[in-house]
Amino acid sequence: MVESINAKVEYVTDGTSFMGPVSYGKIMIGDRGFEFYDDRDVRKFIQIPWDEIDLVIASLVFGGYWIPRFTIRTRHNGEFIFAAKDAKATLRAVRNHVDPKHMVRALTFTQKLKRGWQGIRASHKQKG
């Protein structure tokens, strides 16, 4: 059995982890960190202490009416992508522990295209 890093659990919801094959489980937010536990396999879990989180990136759809997924970028272990049954409430609970300046919106599709185009133009200017 896996030991939780939290002494006190503040929020629990159903969630999905998109690390490798999709796994369904519970997202737990507590006093010491963010945790995800798989429903089917107890050996599959993700524990992220609050001081390890660098950015929380939320994908917003319909002007923030719906948040299909969010990404947690850590200082040393890369990015973890999650979806929650109630993503707004989950991110509000995370905001109590992470500096709101470290919670950002993901780029929209058109912003990604624009930045890609600008990168291509900049690389061609350097060559010529």
Structure description:
With 128 residues, the protein is of the alpha+beta class. 22% of the residues lie in helices and 43% in strands. It has 2 helices and 8 strands. It has helices at 87-95, 109-127; strands at 9-17, 23-30, 33-38, 45-49, 53-61, 66-74, 79-84, 103-105. A hairpin with a 4-residue loop joins strand 6 (66-74) and strand 7.
Biggest β-sheet: strands ordered side by side in the sheet: 4-3-2-1-7-6-5-8
The helix/strand class is alpha+beta
Mean pLDDT: 89
Shape estimate: elongated
Q: How many whole angstroms does the radius of gyration measure? A: 17 Å
The number of helical elements comes to: 2
Low-confidence stretches: none
Report strand %.
35-45%
Task: Give the helix/strand layout.
Elements: E1 9-17, E2 23-30, E3 33-38, E4 45-49, E5 53-61, E6 66-74, E7 79-84, H1 87-95, E8 103-105, H2 109-127
Features:
128 residues, alpha+beta, eight-stranded mixed sheet, 2 helices, 22% helix, elongated
At a glance:
It holds the Pfam family DUF956. This protein is an alpha+beta fold.
